[in-house]
């Protein structure tokens, strides 16, 4: 079709990628002159009329009205009827690679990367990766730079975008090296093996902890594994602050350990260290005494096979819906507790002693407290009306609560009116314990660590992810059977999170 | 959704005397210098009429021709952007008189510092208009030699050129030259700190600089009323130099006021601020959709004050131009647009080597190494043109 010119959808805004064909102003057979309006399109920014770059007769409309197409998509064909070879040059093809006229020895720069960055032609192609040549280029031996080594196990090669590649030139043969190795030594490195290496590298990338390069470097310098640091960044990344508070905490522990038994300058004074009880320590002490001595505690424990919870968490982490949201088994436990409380409402209650006698206040809402070890001490902020939250909302609420607690930003209001508490002692690697009920509540659930343990399933011992749930209840309100049923319900969800769908 | 989106915020004006009287339908003509009204009728002005007294029929036709050509050029450039040949284009429609009137007042030794919309001024400085499009085609960082026509490169950083202009004017002072620098900027840029600093320095140094503010009423989507409680020209008194508001759609008034300002600055009396009261009829750039933030009634009201229309009325009523003149101009401008089009289509990007060659004045081993690497990288694409680099085999 030498006489037919194709108009590709241009980028009419700055950096738009697509547009909708709203209405055609011409039809096949119509004669058009340069700048006659062909079509009205709507982009993310505006409604725009596209003038014809060609003179001729409309041969075909290539995209129907109402269709959204990518920039660079051919939208109309105009045949140069009547006056072939007339002034209007095919605009879509006009910008030819530059450097054609350059010295023949330097032909390499004539690649489309040097083309003008304008709408219709080359820009549209830029979305796709340009195919690399299958052959190897001779390695370039440059003065003062060792000959590039073919990498033994190629990392996932993510070529830098054009223009960024020049900063520190990586070995130019990186792309070609492996194929050559294959050709030269057939079988020396089976493609399959390479595939596995690639896959491993890819999964490493996916499971990699997110952090910005300076944070990454700081962590490396400090010898901190980023995976150990709790991430509070907006995109789930470890922030500088996270790293610093982790470091501060670790330092405090480590330093204290070293000096604890070391006598100071004045040994007499250092034998016993006097710490005034104040602030959160004081409040914690008062609360615990009040709770322990006013509410008769009963504690029960249950071992749970949480393997399905672990799988569920893994799937949530991988799902797009939860992208950037930290998901942990605590989320499932929180959901399980809310679910179980609805089936056993008396656990979500308060014992109220009044002048006219005692009352049990059953709460038809769940302000779910999460005990959090913070720089200020133990705090129990709660998630208000947690029963109304979807799994995703609950995950975000947990993240936010944890982040605020860690940053020391927890407000008094966030700690009031709790109705039931979870304490996540498993985070510290502890199996279980007997928690003390948060005053004003009648139940608390302790979440032990989840680790692989031998577990008997259908008469066989197999490794499963096991955790122990502990619960303490105020026996004035919650009897043994109710506490048992509640804990069994929580355990049931941890064993089979799908029951939440019930 | 059609182009007639929600009619956007009408700003509450408490004291009409304090506003620019620019709202559609306000009907109030703000206080400003005007020599040719919207109906093409000449008005006498005691201070400024004498600056255009020497403009005969030919000179008036030339001003009209300039405005007509630049409008046609602007339309063609906009079309080229819509066809994917330019990455972006900032249209000037509506501001022709402000630009041609002031540009034609400049003397060859004066130096103009434009924003990115001074296409009309470029024309008056004899810049090859096709060169204006190089930057917008993404193939050049500039496009012309600013020293050749004393027309600086387009400045995309808002208001930065006002500082350049003042610095240049201070240089003129030190050279003892008979020249003036003129800084073009818009109402949006007038809110930038650079303009303040440049006015402070200009006043302190009594520098020969003219601040030419085209108040086109919209800083993209922000109306001038939001940015200033007083007419922008009044700001000059705060710095201690004269500020004049002129009808920016009246090419004669703009021409007269600019001539006066240049004289004032060149005679050692220091800077002047001119506020050309005009209107951006089109979009801020081709990536903008003005229907989203302003009402059509406002645009229509300003179209009635069109700078070309009023001069055409005047030329016709004074018997200075006939149908033949306007028809011939149409033909001429269409041919010119065609030239521009083919010039743009023929424009090719710079060779990859150019980027490396301009890093250092002298050859540099690191740059040479990186160029060599990049060439090799580029040659590794399957769709690269078949090359014959030494040692390469298929």
TrEMBL record, chain A:
Biased composition (Low complexity): 82-104, 134-143
Domain Lipoyl-binding as annotated: residue spans: 4-79
Enzyme class: transferase
Disordered: region residues: 82-182
The keyword tRNA processing appears for this protein: no
CDD domains xrefs: lipoyl_domain (cd06849)
Pfam families per the UniProt record, alphabetical: 2-oxoacid_dh, Biotin_lipoyl, E3_binding
Keywords in alphabetical order: Acyltransferase, Lipoyl, Transferase
Domain Peripheral subunit-binding (PSBD), residue spans: 210-247
Enzyme Commission code: 2.3.1.-
Cofactor(s), names only, from the UniProt record: (R)-lipoate
PANTHER family hit by this protein: DIHYDROLIPOAMIDE ACETYLTRANSFERASE COMPONENT OF PYRUVATE DEHYDROGENASE COMPLEX, LIPOAMIDE ACYLTRANSFERASE COMPONENT OF BRANCHED-CHAIN ALPHA-KETO ACID DEHYDROGENASE COMPLEX, MITOCHONDRIAL
Family membership noted in the UniProt record: Belongs to the 2-oxoacid dehydrogenase family.
Record-given protein name: Dihydrolipoamide acetyltransferase component of pyruvate dehydrogenase complex
Organism, as annotated: Arthrobacter hankyongi
Classification of source organism: Bacteria, Bacillati, Actinomycetota, Actinomycetes, Micrococcales
Automatic annotation (TrEMBL), chain B:
Alphabetical keyword list: Oxidoreductase, Pyruvate, Thiamine pyrophosphate
All copies of domain Dehydrogenase E1 component, residue ranges: 65-333
Gene3D superfamilies: 3.40.50.970
Cofactor: thiamine diphosphate
Keyword Oxidoreductase in annotation: yes
InterPro entries reported for this sequence: Alpha-ketoacid_DH_E1_comp (IPR050771), DH_E1 (IPR001017), PdhA/BkdA (IPR017596), THDP-binding (IPR029061)
Any single Pfam family the record assigns to this protein: E1_dh
Record's protein name: Pyruvate dehydrogenase (Acetyl-transferring) E1 component subunit alpha
Species name: Arthrobacter hankyongi
């Amino acid at each position: 079709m030498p006489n037919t010119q194709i108009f590709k959808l241009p980028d009419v805004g700055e950096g738009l990628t697509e547009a909708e064909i709203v209405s055609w102003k011409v039809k096949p057979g119509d004669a058009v002159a340069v700048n006659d309006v062909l079509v009205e399109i709507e982009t993310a920014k505006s409604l725009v009329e596209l003038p014809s770059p060609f003179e001729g007769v409309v041969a075909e409309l290539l995209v129907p009205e109402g269709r959204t197409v990518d920039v660079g998509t051919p939208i109309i064909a105009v045949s140069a009827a009547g006056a072939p070879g007339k002034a209007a040059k095919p605009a879509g093809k006009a910008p030819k690679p530059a450097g054609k006229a350059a010295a023949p020895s330097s032909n390499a720069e004539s690649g489309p990367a040097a083309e003008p960055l304008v709408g219709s032609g080359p820009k549209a192609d830029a979305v796709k990766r340009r195919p690399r040549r299958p052959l190897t280029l001779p390695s370039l031996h440059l003065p003062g730079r060792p000959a590039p080594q073919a990498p033994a196990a190629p990392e996932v090669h993510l070529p830098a975008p054009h223009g960024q590649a020049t900063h520190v030139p990586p070995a130019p043969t990186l792309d070609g090296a492996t194929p050559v190795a294959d050709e030269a030594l057939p079988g020396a490195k089976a493609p399959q093996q390479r595939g596995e290496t690639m896959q491993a590298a890819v999964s490493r990338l996916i499971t990699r902890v997110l952090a910005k390069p300076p944070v990454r470097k700081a962590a490396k310098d400090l010898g901190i594994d980023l995976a150990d640091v709790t991430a509070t960044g907006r995109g789930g990344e470890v922030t500088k602050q996270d790293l610093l508070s982790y470091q501060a905490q670790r330092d405090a522990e480590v330093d204290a350990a070293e000096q604890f038994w070391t006598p100071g300058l004045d040994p007499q004074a250092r034998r016993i260290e006097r710490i005034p009880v104040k602030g959160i320590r004081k409040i914690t002490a008062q609360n615990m005494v009040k709770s322990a001595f006013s509410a008769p505690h009963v504690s029960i424990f249950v071992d749970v096979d949480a393997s399905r919870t672990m799988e569920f968490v893994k799937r949530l982490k991988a799902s797009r819906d939860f992208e950037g949201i930290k998901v942990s088994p605590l989320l499932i436990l929180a959901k399980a507790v809310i679910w179980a409380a609805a089936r056993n409402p008396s656990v979500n209650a308060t014992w109220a002693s009044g002048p006219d006698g005692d009352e049990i206040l059953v709460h038809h809402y769940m302000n779910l407290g999460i005990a959090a070890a913070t720089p200020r001490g133990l705090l129990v902020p709660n998630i208000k009306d947690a029963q109304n939250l979807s799994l995703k909302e609950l995950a975000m609420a947990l993240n936010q609560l944890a982040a605020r607690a860690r940053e020391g930003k927890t407000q008094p209001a966030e700690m009031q009116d709790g109705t039931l508490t979870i304490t996540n002692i498993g985070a510290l690697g502890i199996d279980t314990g007997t928690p003390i009920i948060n005053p004003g509540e009648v139940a608390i659930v302790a979440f032990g660590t989840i680790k692989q343990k031998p577990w008997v399933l259908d008469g066989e011992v197999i490794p499963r992810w096991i955790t122990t749930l502990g619960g303490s209840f105020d026996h004035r309100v919650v009897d043994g059977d109710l506490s048992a049923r509640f804990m069994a319900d929580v355990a049931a969800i941890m064993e089979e999170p799908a029951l939440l769908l019930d | 959704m059609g182009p007639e989106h929600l009619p956007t915020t009408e700003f509450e004006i408490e004291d009409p005397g304090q506003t620019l009287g620019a709202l559609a339908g306000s009907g109030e003509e703000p206080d400003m210098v005007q020599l040719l009204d919207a109906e093409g009728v000449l008005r006498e002005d005691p201070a400024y009429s004498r600056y255009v007294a020497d403009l005969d029929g030919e000179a008036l036709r030339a001003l009209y021709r300039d405005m007509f050509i630049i409008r046609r050029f602007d339309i063609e450039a906009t079309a080229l952007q819509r066809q994917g040949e330019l990455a972006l284009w900032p249209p000037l429609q509506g501001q022709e008189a402000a630009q041609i009137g002031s540009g034609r007042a400049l003397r060859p030794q004066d130096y103009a510092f434009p924003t990115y919309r001074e296409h009309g001024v470029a024309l008056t400085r004899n810049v090859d208009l096709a060169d204006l499009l190089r930057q917008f085609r993404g193939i050049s960082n500039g496009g012309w030699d600013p020293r050749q026509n004393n027309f600086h490169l387009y400045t995309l950083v808002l208001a930065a050129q006002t500082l350049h202009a003042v610095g240049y004017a201070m240089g003129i002072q030190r050279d003892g030259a008979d020249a003036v620098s003129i800084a073009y900027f818009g109402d949006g840029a007038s809110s930038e700190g650079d303009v303040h600093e440049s006015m402070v320095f200009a006043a302190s140094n009594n520098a020969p600089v003219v601040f030419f503010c085209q108040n086109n009423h919209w800083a993209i989507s922000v109306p001038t009323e939001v940015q200033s409680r007083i007419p922008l020209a009044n700001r000059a008194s705060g710095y201690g130099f004269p500020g004049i508001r002129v009808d920016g759609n009246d090419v004669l008034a703009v021409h007269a006021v600019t001539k006066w300002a240049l004289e004032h600055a060149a005679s050692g009396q220091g800077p002047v601020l001119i506020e050309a009261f005009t209107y951006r009829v089109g979009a801020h750039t081709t990536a903008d959709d003005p229907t989203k933030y302003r009402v059509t009634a406002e645009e229509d009201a300003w179209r009635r004050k069109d700078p070309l229309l009023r001069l055409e009325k005047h030329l016709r009523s004074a018997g200075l131009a006939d149908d033949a003149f306007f028809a011939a101009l149409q033909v001429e401008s269409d041919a010119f647009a065609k030239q521009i089009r083919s010039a743009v289509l023929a424009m090719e990007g710079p060779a990859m080597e150019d980027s490396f060659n301009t890093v250092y004045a002298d050859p540099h081993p690191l740059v040479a190494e990186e160029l060599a690497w990049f060439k090799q990288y580029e040659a590794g694409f399957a769709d690269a043109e078949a090359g014959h680099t030494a040692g390469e085999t298929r």
